[in-house]
Design a protein that fits this description.
This protein is mainly α. It contains 14 helices and two strands; from the N terminus they run H-H-H-H-H-H-H-H-H-H-H-H-H-H-E-E.
């Protein structure tokens, strides 16, 4: 009798351990299916979410790495594991598009989006679809969704959107997204990597940056970049209209030693040259004092 009880006890322990391990594996697969599908597939080769995520990642990273048969096969295998899942439907939509069946692709991908807006592949297809249709507002709506829901979207989409900002029609439609959480990153990237005049034009068109803007360094970065590229007129226009400079004029711009002052690049600048030592100090009367030491054989402009 004691042996029988022992056997039953050991059996219950193994059942409990088995159930616990199964629950752990299922939890691990659920957590990693989208973030690290390769790991998830090692534990569950038939995970619908992981199968779709793995093929989606390959398609996004390198579209040429998967032909239409591979994309369609990945979609079918995922759908066999789970009849309705948004990742597989988006893949099936891409496969249909690659085969020239745009209507079927549109239906599948929009079905995927109705199930969840968090599928980046679906949003990328919808962006391209709206761009090809000349629908700027529709394209920006899907840009906004993708940039809000996917951490992967920023590095892929912000450079494209920054380039599109060169178009006046795009800038006009972008004003509606001035307070979007991704806008500071877009304006900073566009300022440093494209024609900064488009950023200045966009901000002027938007009526200036909102009070307490998420990136307080942007005004200084933009003016510095505009001045550095020789766009002085645009830099002054941005400062006096968009930086809320009030009734100030160009003649009111004095020397500033505040590196964060947006007007600093527009004020007096000390020039560096051999044989000339120039310094500016705050005098006793609260006014700036210019000190110049010039060698006997040196000369030139010390401030401008």
């Amino acid at each position: 009798m004691e042996k029988l009880r022992l056997v039953r006890f050991v059996g219950c322990v193994f059942v409990a351990l088995g159930l616990g391990w199964g629950a752990l594996v299922n939890a691990l697969v659920d957590v990693t299916a989208r973030s690290n599908p390769k790991v998830a597939l090692q534990f569950d080769p038939d995970s619908a979410a992981a199968l779709a995520a793995a093929a989606t990642q390959k398609l996004i990273d390198n579209p040429a790495s998967l032909d239409v048969k591979a994309v369609a096969a990945a979609a079918r295998r995922s759908l066999q594991a789970q009849a309705l899942n948004p990742g597989a439907l988006a893949l099936a939509g891409y496969a249909a598009d690659m085969q020239g069946d745009t209507a079927r692709a549109d239906a599948l991908i929009r079905t995927s989006e109705r199930m969840t807006r968090r599928n980046l592949l679906a949003q990328l297809w919808l962006i391209e679809n709206r761009v090809n249709a000349g629908d700027i507002a529709g394209a920006l709506r899907h840009y906004d969704i993708a940039l809000r829901v996917s951490d992967e979207a920023g590095p892929r989409l912000l450079p494209v959107l920054a380039g599109a900002m060169q178009q006046a029609d795009v800038r006009r439609q972008l004003v509606a997204y001035l307070r979007a959480p991704w806008m500071p990153s877009l304006l900073s990237y566009a300022t440093s990597n494209t024609d900064p005049r488009s950023v200045a034009a966009f901000i002027r068109q938007a009526g200036g940056l909102p009070r307490g803007y998420a990136d307080p360094q942007l005004p200084h970065l933009l003016i510095t970049t505009l001045v550095g590229k020789g766009f002085l007129q645009e830099a002054r226009a941005y400062y006096f209209v968009s930086a809320k400079a009030g009734d100030a004029t160009a003649s009111d711009l004095a020397f500033s030693d505040d590196a964060a002052d947006p007007a600093k690049p527009l004020g007096w600048q000390i020039t560096d040259q051999d044989g000339v030592e120039t310094s500016v100090q705050n005098g006793a009367a609260g006014e700036w004092e210019l000190s110049i030491a010039v060698g006997s054989d040196a000369g030139g402009v010390v401030m401008q």
